[in-house]
């Protein structure tokens, strides 16, 4: 997918049960115009993915898994594999800060999940970002480097085209304290530099990089106007159909190509 198309992902987190997700999708479907230059992705609870995949217009929305286990099958009580999600979701979040910090996922877990997604035809959205302490210590660039190198360790140049990177400063997630656009540009340029060192300049220019962290309908345009930002990962504001629709429209307006689908 080319960088001309903005990606807007709504991460519902552990909100909206199956029934509520379905009602929400129904409301959103009535509000969002399908646009050629915007890919709208919904990441509901795992429980609702199957039913939403039957309800959703795939022209209008794609689905993402918020999480999955890296092995394909076996004695892993309570887990859902990327193999089970194959064909139902187009994307899978990997390394979200809540997975790293609340569930203590390691770099190895994240690396294995990136691989599992790719192996199963699911595009991994690799989330990376510094904590407040790392930021205060001037360690942002190192943190991004380490998470990027860790997450992409087994990814070949060909496979890299499947990977989306989401820059999400941990201190900005769910806090209402969003990063200023110049900091986002600096971080994403650092990310592209690291990718360039690992895979070469064309790969760095081709890579799709999103911003996430307390994005609202009033701040979205500032991020979407940044040439390095290819879309947004939206948590809280994606639960409000009006706000989310506005963010999608702003993505449409910020990009090239005006036509409806
Ligand atoms: P937030 O979440 O928009 O509620 O800060 C973003 C995310 O967790 O991806």
Description:
With 261 residues, this protein is of the alpha/beta class. It has a single domain (6-254), classed as Aldolase class I (TIM Barrel, Alpha-Beta Barrel). 43% of the residues lie in helices and 15% in strands. It has helices at 18-31, 46-55, 82-85, 97-101, 107-119, 132-136, 140-151, 157-160, 181-199, 201-206, 220-224, 241-254; strands spanning 6-11, 38-43, 62-65, 91-94, 123-128, 164-167, 208-212, 231-234. Strands 1-2-3-4-5-6-7-8 form an eight-stranded parallel barrel, surrounded by five helices. Helix 1 packs across helix 2 (46-55), helix 1 (18-31) packs across helix 12 (241-254) and helix 7 packs across helix 9. The mean pLDDT is 95. The structure holds 2-phosphoglycolic acid. 2-phosphoglycolic acid is lined by residues 11, 168, 173-174, 212-215, 233-237.
Brief description of this entry?
The chain is an alpha/beta fold and 261 residues long. It has helices at residues 18-31, 46-55, 82-85, 97-101, 107-119, 132-136, 140-151, 157-160, 181-199, 201-206, 220-224, 241-254, and strands spanning 6-11, 38-43, 62-65, 91-94, 123-128, 164-167, 208-212, 231-234. It is built from 12 helices and 8 strands.
Beta-strand percentage range: 5-15%
- Helix/strand order: EHEHEHEHHEHHHEHHEHEH
**CATH level 1 class label:** Alpha Beta
Placed side by side, the strands forming the largest sheet appear as: 1-2-3-4-5-6-7-8
Please describe the structure with a list of short key phrases separated by commas or semicolons:
globular; eight-stranded parallel β-barrel; binds 2-phosphoglycolic acid; 12 helices; single chain; 43% helix; 15% strand; alpha/beta; TIM Barrel; 261 residues
């Amino acid at each position: 997918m080319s960088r001309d198309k903005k990606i807007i992902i709504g991460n519902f987190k552990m909100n909206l049960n199956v029934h509520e997700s379905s009602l929400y999708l129904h409301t959103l479907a009535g509000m969002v115009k399908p646009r050629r230059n915007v890919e709208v992705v919904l990441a509901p609870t795992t429980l609702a993915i199957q039913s939403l995949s039957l309800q959703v217009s795939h022209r209008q929305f794609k689905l993402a898994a918020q999480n999955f286990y890296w092995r394909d099958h076996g004695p892993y009580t309570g887990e859902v594999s990327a193999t089970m999600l194959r064909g139902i979701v187009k994307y899978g979040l990997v390394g979200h800060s809540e997975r790293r910090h609340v569930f203590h996922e390691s770099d190895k877990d994240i690396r294995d999940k990136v691989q599992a997604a790719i192996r199963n035809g699911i595009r991994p959205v690799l989330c990376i970002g510094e904590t407040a302490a790392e930021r205060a210590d001037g360690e942002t660039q190192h943190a991004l480097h380490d998470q990027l190198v860790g997450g992409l360790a087994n990814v070949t140049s060909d496979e890299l085209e499947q990977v989306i990177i989401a820059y999400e400063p941990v201190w900005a997630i769910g806090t209402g304290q969003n990063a200023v656009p110049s900091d986002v540009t600096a971080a994403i340029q650092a990310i592209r530099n690291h990718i360039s060192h690992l895979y070469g300049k064309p790969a760095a220019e081709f890579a799709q990089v999103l911003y996430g962290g307390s994005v609202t309908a009033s701040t979205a345009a500032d991020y979407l106007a940044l040439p390095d930002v290819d879309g947004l990962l939206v948590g809280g504001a994606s639960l409000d159909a009006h706000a989310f629709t506005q963010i999608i429209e702003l993505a449409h307006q910020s990009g090239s190509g005006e036509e409806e689908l």
